[in-house]
Amino acid sequence: MPPKGKNKLPVPLPEGMVLKDTEGKVWRLGAMIGQGGFGLIYLASPHIDIPVEDDAVHVIKVEYLENGPLFSELKFYQRAAKQEYIQKWMKLKQIRCLGIPVFWGSGLAEYNGKSYRFMVMERLGIDLQRIFDAERRFEKELVLQLGIRILDALAYIHENEYVHGDIKAANLLLGYTNPHEVYLADYGLSYRYCPNGNHKQYKENPRKGHNGTMEFTSLDAHKGVAPSRRGDLEILGYCMLQWLCGKLPWEQNLKDPVVVQAEKIKLMDELPHSVMKLAPGSSCSEIAKFLACVYDLAYDEKPKYEVLKQILVDGLKSSGRYYDGPLEISTAKCTLSQPASKGLKGDLPKPTRRQFQQKQGKLEDKERNHLRKTGPIITKRRQDEGKEVEFNRMLQHDKLQPEKPIRHDYHPQTVFWEVEKKHHQNRTSHSPKSLQEISCGMTTTSASSSFNLASSDAIYRLITNVISHNTQMPDVMRELLHQPPTSQCYAQDDNYKCGTKG
């Protein structure tokens, strides 16, 4: 389990400090070249006797020991990203390059009385977010190539029981020594969705809702459901849509997570038309098909990665570009000193409980109105959600629904026949012959709990009086009224029953 506590940025370590990893290798720190939300990134070199050069090919990520993100990332690399595993997978799948950074080692360090955790990685280049901020959109061929590369990486990650959980341009970096390849980095939010082969159960948790980067986070994450494979693929679909069209339909409402969630539901429910209208012609058709396949996945269902990959590959055939060819990305408009975009972090203030309930109610109303127009769409995703929602509604109904009130009818004939029917359902030994006997019979445990009408003498006299003044009563009924009782109540084993006096 990752360390608990509030994550905070560490005090910088001095340049030139030497660190020793768990394997006994030593590393010298160079200049600090960046920082994330909770950690610092330094150039590093295994040559500790000379200063670290600016073109070093290693970096070290440093965080306080009690911080959680680096711990989660470290566990992912140790369990799932060993180089022998990656090489074996590439050979099996005939992949020339798998976009997962190389992990070199990790360890602990002390400085000024504080404990640090560090991780040594291969150095990567510029991130796609800087390029996208400069270009504002990517051409279709590049989007499809990126999608295929990332899909290959996700297939490997998922096969090793992990999901990434935070796919976005800021976490996709070009290679430093091979800038025509892209790498999926930052596994601080990675999640082990299937430990030891046991998939996590679908369970909604509103307190954990809307986690992740707001533009791209999955519908499951909006509901507080633990990340899964379909969530990663859904996020990838949103990323490709933004890169191709320049923006997403909900980007103007990022401060309102519930509205963003509603917009995503509308987009997915109205596929493929909702995606096709975002760009002219059929340039979004592959992404529409991709998202449609992902939306139909059950929560714990294994995606058909080859089918999804073929959808994107088919889109490249007309352009004559190979899906595994070098990425043609221009960084001319970008400067390496330009900071990554700051508006993409999912750290927006969450709504209060009352605001969440109000927004959630509006969202449910929109969904109901949408279903009235389009009809229900039954998918495996809907089945997953339906089981959870139906169970919660049953619990809520039992809590809110008061006990069904006893029916005090002023129609004595109806009362009579209902009581007689009740006796039949309770399998009494005989049918009542008079209203007095009915009163006796209704003192049984089974009858008195649901129908206490005749248990009171006053109510019995009232009914008798009403019946006596009813001029339309059949003679047979009036005769039954004045007939003396032929049975009495007796106690047996604390349960009151009616029987004939012997």
From TrEMBL:
Positions of the UniProt region annotated as Disordered: 340-379
Pfam families found in the cross-reference section: Pkinase
Gene Ontology BP annotations: cellular response to oxidative stress; regulation of interleukin-1-mediated signaling pathway; regulation of MAPK cascade
Record's signal peptide: none
Keywords: ATP-binding, Cytoplasm, Endoplasmic reticulum, Kinase, Membrane, Mitochondrion, Nucleotide-binding, Nucleus, Phosphoprotein, Serine/threonine-protein kinase, Transferase, Transmembrane, Transmembrane helix
GO cellular component: endoplasmic reticulum membrane; mitochondrial membrane; nuclear envelope; protein-containing complex
Subcellular location: Cytoplasm; Endoplasmic reticulum membrane; Mitochondrion membrane; Nucleus envelope
Annotated PROSITE patterns: PROTEIN_KINASE_DOM (PS50011), PROTEIN_KINASE_ST (PS00108)
Domain of life: Eukaryota
EC numbers for this chain: 2.7.11.1
Catalysed reactions, semicolon-separated: L-threonyl-[protein] + ATP = O-phospho-L-threonyl-[protein] + ADP + H(+); L-seryl-[protein] + ATP = O-phospho-L-seryl-[protein] + ADP + H(+)
Protein family: Belongs to the protein kinase superfamily. CK1 Ser/Thr protein kinase family. VRK subfamily.
Protein name from the UniProt record: Serine/threonine-protein kinase VRK2
Species name: Crocodylus porosus (Saltwater crocodile)
Lineage: Eukaryota, Metazoa, Chordata, Craniata, Vertebrata
